[in-house]
Design goal:
mainly beta; five-stranded antiparallel sheet; 12 strands; 30% strand
Length: 227
């Protein structure tokens, strides 16, 4: 067959938003089954591509299309990593969040705390609460289930419930969002809760649960099993 498009040849990754009708149905269905950094071949029949009409002059009628796809990033646009990032004191002080011990430190002056399988803290502006959840390298997009509501939050990774309950204060459910961050070998899910009252300092993430836990070292896999 003929190659009718190639982002590799252009030297620029193709970016799109799922659920916005920016790509063919086959992509909408199959991209969500991929893990971050995974490369695979997608074979898509015409009913999930360009149908009976095709896309003249590039795609003929009733064409089955084959795509060689690498999922390079999820969430925010890709940015060049700073070579010094790994030397800085960040949320994770280990090489890999996969089955390794993770040391989470909390700044005294910034609201925040830790829970089973996650860390939370206010952003620098204080207008948002950022929750960091370490992910396995092979996690699929469809396995990430997040629901933002004004007074509650649900986060599930596959069948594992990480967070499910009423949050400390109200948030803007429309502007609250999630992202996936990759730094070196570490992959994290970032949940951003946009405060309705930016002056309010959160004492805890979930109602009835203290925001700080006396745990110095957390085994991520065990923490997720407990969640």
């Amino acid at each position: 067959g003929k190659v009718f498009d190639s982002s590799r040849a252009r030297g620029e990754p193709f970016a799109f938003t799922l659920g916005e009708d920016e790509v063919i149905d086959g992509w909408e269905m199959l991209i969500t089954t991929m893990g971050l950094g995974e490369r695979c071949e997608l074979v898509i029949p015409p009913e999930y591509a360009y149908g009976e009409a095709g896309m003249p002059p590039f795609v003929p009628e009733n064409a089955t299309l084959t795509f060689d796809i690498e999922l390079m990033d999820i969430g925010r646009p890709m940015e060049e990593e700073d070579e010094d990032d790994d030397d800085e004191d960040d949320d994770f002080n280990n090489e890999d969040a996969q089955g390794s011990d993770v040391f989470w430190e909390q700044e005294d002056e910034r609201e925040g705390g830790i829970g089973p399988g996650y860390k939370w803290e206010a952003t620098a502006s204080g207008s948002e609460i950022c929750i960091t959840v370490p992910l396995n390298k092979d996690v699929k997009m469809k396995e990430i289930k997040v629901s933002f509501r004004t007074n509650s939050l649900t986060c599930k990774i596959g069948q594992k419930s990480i967070i499910d309950g009423d949050i400390f204060a109200g948030v803007d459910s429309d502007d609250s969002h999630w992202d996936v961050e990759k730094k070196g070998n570490r992959i994290s899910l970032l949940l951003y809760l946009v405060k309705l009252d930016t002056r309010l300092k959160w004492e805890r993430l979930l109602k009835g649960i203290d925001g700080a836990v006396d745990v110095d070292v957390i085994d991520v896999d065990e923490a997720l099993r407990m969640a």
